[in-house]
Design goal:
Number of strands: 0
Number of domains: 1
Length: 124
């Protein structure tokens, strides 16, 4: 569904749709971050967060705070909880985006651009 939405928006504001859809990749965090924790892959966790910047960091400050807590305490609990919260939140955000598009495709571009320009409405 998201891929089809991105394709439909490509003729108008490809950059805006691409940015938003690309950064909804934080949906992956539920499986990716806990896997790194289970493997005790500290270097990989640091690498992941070294690249956690820009819009992803703006959209998911909870995960950044959890990473800082992990660095301070060595306990992965905050990272696990943030990953779980993020999974539910980002799934709902993707569903919201799809509902906007399905309800009024012509108005979807403006809604997407508004979400990109002010990601606070989507942030966790």
């Amino acid at each position: 569904m998201l891929a089809r939405l991105a394709f439909q928006l490509a003729h108008t504001r490809l950059e805006a749709a691409h940015i938003l859809l690309q950064h909804l990749d934080v949906l992956r965090v539920k499986s990716f971050v806990p896997r790194l924790i289970e493997r005790d892959a500290a270097c990989s966790i640091h690498f992941y967060f070294a690249n956690f910047e820009g819009m992803r960091a703006s959209l998911f400050p909870l995960l950044d705070r959890a990473y800082r807590r992990w660095r301070e305490t060595g306990s992965p609990d905050a990272l696990r909880k943030a990953a779980e919260a993020g999974s539910a939140h980002w799934h709902e955000a993707a569903q919201r985006l799809l509902r906007v598009h399905q309800g009024d495709p012509a108005a979807a571009e403006k809604a997407i651009v508004d979400w990109i320009e002010d990601p606070g409405a989507l942030a966790l």
